[in-house]
């Protein structure tokens, strides 16, 4: 680490990363360059939501992977800027906290033959928290400013990533990824009758309901206007339909301020193999159009459609 004695190189490297995988790699390389140990594991709760599990960042670690509960127990024991040390059969384990806005969101676990120097420990804390800050900035750049859901640009990248991985891993996975397109029914009437301020409030409330009805590991996006998209895992098509129907029912029962009751329509399809983003969205949209033409407030799977049919031509459908 002689060329990086003051830490300037890794600070620049970490703060220059604009993609999450590259940011993760920059942190792993920076930790490895500390030079006082070779065995380490980094666990990070990338959602920054307290109580949710922290995932292992460096999968090829030489340290045995901890269970979710073991990591949660460790996070509860460490505190901001406080390092814990344990000894067992000549091996010294050092636990360095990762924190963001005062909360511990992750931990660096180091196994070594001797205690880390104070300089090494402080550098580790510094680089871990620089990483957490940069991760937060990346997350904010991926968010829609009104709803704080993921934005359209992030949607394209995530679909490509999931589709590529699914093409390789499909046979070994018990759950499958699904793409759903969701649209607020008769939203133009809301803007016309109540104004755009109330319209924005409706979009925000629907976004919150959508996020609350899916799991933290699913991806919820504001696709554009009053249209949303969801990338989520389900065991099969029926399971996926049930998830979307739960959300549809939740919206239908929600008392929107000033507006009253509203409904949503959706269309969905599985992602079984690599396809262009535009093709996947078009198919999910076709299922969404079918829901609109079937009276709205319903869920349609792409598999239900006649593959030969063209997009419905119905002047009553709001274009988005």
From TrEMBL:
PROSITE patterns (alphabetical): GGDEF
EC number annotated for this UniProt entry: 2.7.7.65
Coiled coil: none
Catalytic activity: 2 GTP = 3',3'-c-di-GMP + 2 diphosphate
One GO CC annotation: plasma membrane
One Pfam family matching this protein: GGDEF
Top EC class of this enzyme: transferase
Domain GGDEF intervals: 175-304
GO biological process: cell adhesion involved in single-species biofilm formation; negative regulation of bacterial-type flagellum-dependent cell motility
Required co-factors: Mg(2+)
Highest rank taxon of the organism: Bacteria
SMART domains per the UniProt record, alphabetical: GGDEF
GO MF terms held by the record: diguanylate cyclase activity
PANTHER family found in the cross-reference section: DIGUANYLATE CYCLASE DGCM-RELATED (PTHR45138:SF9), REGULATORY COMPONENTS OF SENSORY TRANSDUCTION SYSTEM (PTHR45138)
NCBIfam families, per database record: GGDEF
Protein name, UniProt field: diguanylate cyclase
Organism: Pseudoalteromonas lipolytica
